[in-house]
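hey so u asked for the seq, here:
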Amino acid sequence: MRGPDVRVLQDGSCVLAVRGNRTRLIICSRPYERTLAQAAGHAGTGYLFRPACFARSSNTVTDLIYRAARDPRVPHLVLGRCRATWLVERMNIPIPLPVLLAAAGLDSLHALSRLLPYLKGTGAEQAHTVLREMP
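ran it, structure tokens below
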């Protein structure tokens, strides 16, 4: 992401314009808005992450994580798992599926099916109550 990819709206929220094959807009989570807005302000038109780096590849972040010193007490960080965790957290809120699909840059529910075992369970009584409250 470059500085201009971050837009700060009047209400203080940040919108990220993702480039590439899955072009989309993502609303930044509230706890990270201020940090992201400051980083975008400092970056100008440059990159937010590793601004002095001139060689870019699709594995820039992955490579940095792989080469970082590891603490044996901390699990190995895998970006695919980070994305899956992000998706499961939002599916548990719950968030409307069309909103989640758009934010994640997905075209179908197929990619979410592998995450179903990690969702919070719902008892029959809770399902009954929720479904009765729906219009």
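The radius of gyration is 18 Å. The longest strand covers residues 14-18.
lmk if thats what u needed
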